[in-house]
């Protein structure tokens, strides 16, 4: 009977222990459904997240601080386990990057190369990999990512799972100018309760007791009479000021101009973390009250203030004159804008006239083939004409140089079927896809070279078109070996006349990008030179 009773008791304690262990394991298990973003580490396309056990309370995460661009701070309570996530947009971005996980004693817990981790697709980040689960009870754990080829490219995320340290103000001292304002120094008194600001005063210096995480604390100054915060900063400096215990202590200088009134001010140092109220963080803060006496001195600013009064009077007079002049200038601008709109309307009207002019000439060529019973060439011409027509009808106000060159090539191939001439197009030192010119600006000039230049020469006719650059200018030259014509003849064709009008209106609208055209013609041929000023 005793053996049976002992056996039952043994089984009872065993199953109780197993149940308790299972319950504890379940409570301490990491909640992988919830991952916290730990902050920007200034590493392109790579970020770090973390999941915690169900008992952990994530109080504040992804905190960034001044003067520390590559560190992020997360504060949790009652944490037991943690699992880091490493996320990246593209797997190529993790090349050459390594990671190291350390505790607060700087012991390496885990390290390796990112490209050795098992990344899976993630709907938000692109790709994600999980590190092994870590025990973090009462620990401070940090993970650092760094480039093995360039260690300067690194960032650290800190997970703080301990009680925050109590802040302590160790120095409050007046700063004053020396060497005629070229430098400053600090009074030997290091714990003053009364400060007098005179003309030689620069401000006060406040130093805090240093700890490994001083950067999470903020220095705050409040005017006690009003409760207004007149100063707040976390840009701690770690040079020059040393305490009796040795080592440079974090300190911040406060300019005297923040103290607008004489009276009592409270100096406060406390943690400044997102998502946690000031009231809750008060238990980790330290406070000291100083009495500030501002000695009124007449400075350059005071004389400037009195000068302002005189300037205001002069300003009122000047403002009246300015209003009248501005009103006149507004009317002038309004008139110029109206003139610009009229010019733009004329430009669009001219371009709309060019399109039917081109179409009528092309249809005339097709009719010529049909009258000559040359059906094959008529079909070829009509095929190229259809392609060119779509380009002409759908073109915007400006087109790329490449598109315009292709338009000229299509047109010359069309006319070559009819007249049998030879042509050549060359482009040097120009990126055609990055340069725009007015649409259909060149076609009427080339058409003129065909119809009035080399049409009668047939297969002896030649047309050459050159695109080149001269410093910031673009040059386009159209040459034919025709019989030439009188460039001063006022009865020139419609296409040439419309082109000249377009150039004239363009130059009125674009004073900094002018187009000039010059035609030289004699019995051996005609050359047309177009210069696009400051086009490149």
TrEMBL record:
It comes from the Bacteria. PANTHER family: SENSOR HISTIDINE KINASE YPDA (PTHR34220:SF7). The keyword Ligase does not apply. GO terms for molecular function: phosphorelay sensor kinase activity. It holds the Pfam family His_kinase. The chain crosses the membrane at residues 303-325. Keywords: Kinase, Membrane, Signal, Transferase, Transmembrane, Transmembrane helix. GO terms for cellular component: membrane. InterPro entries: Bact_2-comp_sensor_kinase, HATPase_C_sf, Sig_transdc_His_kin_internal. It comes from Sphingobacterium nematocida. This is Histidine kinase. Residues 1-19 form the signal peptide. Residues 346-420 form the Signal transduction histidine kinase internal region domain.
């Amino acid at each position: 009977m005793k053996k049976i009773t002992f056996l039952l008791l043994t089984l009872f304690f065993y199953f109780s222990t197993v149940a308790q262990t299972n319950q504890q394991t379940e409570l301490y298990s990491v909640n992988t459904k919830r991952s916290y973003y730990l902050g920007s580490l200034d590493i392109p396309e790579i970020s770090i997240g973390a999941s915690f056990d169900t008992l952990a309370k994530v109080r504040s995460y992804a905190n960034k601080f001044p003067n520390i661009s590559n560190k992020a701070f997360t504060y949790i309570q009652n944490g037991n386990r943690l699992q880091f996530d490493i996320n990246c947009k593209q797997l190529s971005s993790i090349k050459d990057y390594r990671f190291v996980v350390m505790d607060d004693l700087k012991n390496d817990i885990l390290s390796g190369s990112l490209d050795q981790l098992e990344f899976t697709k993630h709907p938000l980040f692109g790709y994600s990999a999980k590190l092994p689960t870590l025990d973090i009870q009462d620990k401070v754990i940090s993970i650092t990512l760094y480039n093995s080829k360039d260690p300067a490219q690194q960032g650290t995320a800190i997970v703080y799972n301990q009680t925050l340290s109590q802040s302590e103000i160790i120095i409050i001292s007046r700063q004053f100018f020396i060497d005629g304002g070229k430098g400053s120094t600090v009074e030997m008194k290091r714990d003053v309760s009364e400060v007098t600001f005179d003309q030689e005063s620069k401000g006060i210096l406040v130093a805090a007791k240093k700890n490994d995480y001083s950067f999470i604390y903020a220095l705050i100054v409040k005017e006690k009479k009003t409760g207004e915060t007149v100063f707040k900063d976390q840009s701690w400096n770690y040079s020059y000021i040393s305490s009796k215990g040795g080592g440079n202590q974090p300190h911040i200088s406060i300019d005297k101009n923040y103290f607008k009134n004489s009276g009592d001010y409270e100096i406060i140092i406390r943690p400044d973390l997102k998502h946690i109220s000031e009231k809750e963080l008060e238990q980790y803060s330290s406070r000291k009250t100083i009495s500030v006496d501002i000695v009124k001195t007449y400075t350059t600013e005071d004389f400037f203030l009195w000068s302002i009064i005189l300037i205001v009077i002069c300003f009122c007079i000047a403002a009246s004159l300015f209003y009248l002049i501005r009103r006149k200038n507004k009317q002038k601008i309004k008139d110029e804008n109206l003139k610009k709109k009229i010019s733009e309307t004329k430009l669009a009207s001219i371009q709309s006239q060019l399109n039917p002019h081109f179409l009528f000439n092309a249809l005339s060529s097709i009719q010529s083939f049909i009258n000559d019973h040359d059906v094959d060439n008529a079909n070829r011409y009509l095929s190229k004409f259809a392609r060119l027509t779509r380009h002409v009808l759908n073109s915007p106000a400006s087109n790329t140089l490449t598109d315009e060159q292709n338009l000229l090539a299509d047109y010359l191939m069309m006319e070559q079927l009819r007249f049998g001439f030879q042509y050549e197009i060359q482009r040097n030192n120009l990126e055609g896809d990055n340069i725009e010119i007015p649409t259909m600006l060149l076609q009427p000039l080339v058409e003129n070279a065909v119809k009035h230049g080399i049409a009668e020469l047939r297969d002896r006719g030649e047309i050459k078109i050159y695109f080149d650059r001269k410093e910031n200018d673009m040059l386009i030259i159209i040459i034919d070996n025709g019989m030439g014509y009188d460039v001063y003849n006022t009865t020139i064709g419609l296409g040439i006349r419309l082109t000249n009008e377009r150039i004239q209106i363009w130059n009125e609208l674009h004073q900094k990008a002018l187009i000039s055209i010059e035609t030289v013609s004699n019995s051996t041929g005609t050359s047309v030179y177009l210069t696009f000023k400051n086009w490149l």
